[in-house]
Amino acid sequence: MLYVLKRIIALALVLLVSSFIVFSGMYLAPGSPEQFLVQGRTVTPEVLEVIRAQYGLDDPFLVRYWNWLVDVLHGDFGRSLVTQQDVSTLVESRLPTTLFLATYAAILIVFAGVGLGVLAATRSGAFEKIVVFGSNLGFAVPTFFAALVLMAVFGSNLGWFPVSGSGEGFTDRIWHLTLPAIALAFPAIAVVARITRTAVREEQGSEHVVMAIARGVPKRIVLGRHTLRNSMLPVTTVLGTNIAGLLASAFVIEYAFTLDGIGSLLVNSVQKKDFAVVQAIALIMVLAFGLINLIVDLLYAVIDPRVRLAREVSA
């Protein structure tokens, strides 16, 4: 319990530091909000002063940051400089598509990556060579290129899946987001499959596994209870890292498949210097990454009780 509390406090500190970096980084970027608001028109100093006062740009930097942070903690991310919409409402309308896509891709990574890695480790021969070749291909093929290939083959030529839009309703969303999810998950599946295969192979040669087999324990029980469980620590780390990065890499897929997610919104907002929207999306990504890392740390203790015992002793 104490360890969980420490991790939550650490996550809160990371979010606080990240919020300061996100807020200050946007103001250090070329251009300024007032320059965007006047759209290159020549305005009098009085008008510019009114604009700065309206958006709080005439306050000291730390005051602006504090006011912004307090508003964020109350769920208020400000207003979009481009659409004049509430940022929370704007992001909320786009977030379900990205979350559905990232969750779909995460499920593919877990089942396909771990499953293929385990099968490759337990079955030598042609199947193992195919998995190794596929993992090498996953390392080499960029996400955007994978998306284009999937769109051309399974969308345009075969017509099995749509190549644009996110769909309506659960079933329709799955149909529309299958190709984007596969393209998004493909590199991570390759990494997880390779790490899983290596971890299981190493565990198969460990002393306790050899002794279990020598005692006549059925291979199925040895595989599940001894080999897989003890090989899952490095696999869990890789899974957490790749799943946490899905939100950050989703913008490439959303742009390719013209999806209405926060990734495509982030790209448009950066191009148009819509500071409030960029700051909100950046914080969401930092929060998602931190939460997933926290879950991975907690899973360590579930997978290996020795990790939990070590943490209790250190605490």
Automatic annotation (TrEMBL):
* Family label: Belongs to the binding-protein-dependent transport system permease family.
Q: Which SUPFAM superfamilies match?
A: MetI-like (SSF161098)
Superkingdom as given in the UniProt entry: Bacteria
Query: Where does this protein reside within or beyond the cell?
Result: Cell membrane
What does the record say about its membrane topology?
A: Multi-pass membrane protein
Q: Which PROSITE patterns match?
A: ABC_TM1 (PS50928)
TM helices/strands, residue ranges: 7-29, 99-119, 131-154, 174-193, 235-257, 277-303
Taxonomic source organism: Agromyces cerinus subsp. cerinus
At the highest ranks, the source species' classification is: Bacteria, Bacillati, Actinomycetota, Actinomycetes, Micrococcales
Q: Which GO terms describe its cellular component?
A: plasma membrane
Residue ranges occupied by any ABC transmembrane type-1 domain in the UniProt entry: 95-296
Keyword Chloroplast attached: no
- Any Gene Ontology biological process: transmembrane transport
Subcellular location, principal: membrane
Name the InterPro entries on file: BPD_transp_1_N, MetI-like, MetI-like_sf
What name goes with this protein? Peptide/nickel transport system permease protein
Keyword line? Cell membrane, Membrane, Transmembrane, Transmembrane helix, Transport
Pfam families, per database record: BPD_transp_1 (PF00528), BPD_transp_1_N (PF19300)
